[in-house]
């Protein structure tokens, strides 16, 4: 069995920036076990698999550890492969996913994706969370991740979390954020439960962050910067119950997976 594979950098303007993702177009679905093994072998934060379904595509995302319900950068990556490598010529791509229908279009920033907004609710920070981060939160919220608001960008940069402790929390991961002088807000994202201690640039986290900062700053168009080692910019627009996430994608590698099954 042979499967085409593309590796690209999403939310990036240059190679080695943003968040790497693998994309595997499939003619038909193979077993979940095989999908998981391919994602583990790729050893990237996400591998996207898609199959044509009429005028749309069914899209799934796998980390090296598990399938996830939503992934922004790998959706951006899959759309880029369709537009740039597989000859997709319509104005918009519809992806059917576990989080509903996601739409991706070309835009001034590269590509724009319409995702469901996630409104985080205020919570008391678990003692383990505070201890693992080694800093006292200004505010703490919960959606599918813990959202920890800190005072400033310097605190975000200085964090050195205890990932073993974070792995034992009950939600998917931890997103730390603060206001910034250069952009609207900054963040870092930690997902040790998914075997991704720190994610370079996380689209799905901005579905949580954009509604918070939109209300805080009283505007619906924002720019977020993720302060990972690779860094990346995410342009956000809050539009009712949706968040439009925009960014560009840079090619890195393409090849063929050869499986002796």
Q: Mind explaining what this structure looks like?
A:
The chain is of the alpha+beta class and 261 residues long. It folds into two domains: 2-105 and 247-258, Diaminopimelate Epimerase, Chain A, domain 1; 121-240, Roll (Diaminopimelate Epimerase, Chain A, domain 1), CATH 3.10.310. The chain has six helices and 18 strands. It has helices spanning 32-42, 72-84, 127-133, 153-158, 163-166, 203-217, and strands spanning 2-10, 19-26, 47-53, 56-62, 67-68, 92-97, 100-107, 110-116, 121-122, 139-142, 146-149, 174-179, 185-191, 196-199, 221-226, 232-239, 242-247, 249-258. The chain has an 18-stranded mixed β-sheet that branches. A hairpin with an 8-residue loop joins strand 1 (2-10) and strand 2 (19-26). The longest helix has 15 residues, at 203-217. The radius of gyration is 18 Å and the shape is globular. The N and C termini lie close together (7 Å). The model has no long low-confidence stretch (mean pLDDT 96).
Summarize this structure briefly.
The protein is an alpha+beta fold and 261 residues long. 21% of the residues lie in helices and 43% in strands. The termini are close together.
SSE topology sketch:
Blueprint: E1 2-10, E2 19-26, H1 32-42, E3 47-53, E4 56-62, E5 67-68, H2 72-84, E6 92-97, E7 100-107, E8 110-116, E9 121-122, H3 127-133, E10 139-142, E11 146-149, H4 153-158, H5 163-166, E12 174-179, E13 185-191, E14 196-199, H6 203-217, E15 221-226, E16 232-239, E17 242-247, E18 249-258
Parallel strand pairs: 2-3, 4-6, 11-12, 13-15
Antiparallel strand pairs: 1-2, 1-18, 3-4, 4-5, 6-7, 7-8, 8-17, 9-10, 10-11, 12-13, 13-14, 15-16, 16-17
């Amino acid at each position: 069995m042979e499967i085409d594979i593309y590796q690209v950098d999403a939310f990036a303007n240059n190679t080695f920036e943003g968040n790497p993702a693998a994309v595997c177009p499939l003619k038909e679905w193979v077993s979940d076990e095989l999908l998981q093994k391919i994602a583990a072998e790729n050893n990237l934060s996400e591998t996207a698999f898609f199959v044509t379904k009429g005028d749309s595509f069914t899209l799934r995302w796998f980390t090296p550890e598990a399938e996830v319900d939503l992934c922004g950068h790998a959706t951006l990556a899959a759309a880029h492969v369709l537009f740039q490598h597989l000859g997709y010529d319509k104005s918009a791509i519809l992806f059917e996913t576990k989080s509903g229908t996601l739409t991706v279009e070309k835009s001034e920033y590269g590509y724009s994706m319409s995702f469901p907004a996630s409104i985080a609710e205020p919570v008391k920070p678990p003692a383990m969370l505070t201890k693992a981060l080694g800093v006292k939160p200004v505010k703490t919220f919960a959606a599918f991740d813990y959202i920890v608001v800190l005072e400033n960008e310097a605190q975000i940069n200085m964090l050195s979390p205890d990932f073993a402790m974070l792995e034992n929390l009950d939600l998917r991961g931890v997103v730390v954020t603060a206001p910034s002088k250069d952009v609207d807000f900054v963040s870092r994202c930690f997902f040790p439960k998914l075997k991704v201690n720190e994610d370079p640039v996380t689209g799905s986290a901005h579905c949580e962050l954009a509604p918070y900062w939109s209300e805080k700053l009283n505007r619906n168009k924002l720019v977020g910067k993720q302060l990972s080692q690779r860094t990346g910019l995410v342009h956000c627009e809050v539009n009712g119950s949706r968040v439009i996430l925009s960014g560009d994608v840079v090619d890195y590698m393409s090849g063929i997976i050869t499986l002796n099954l």
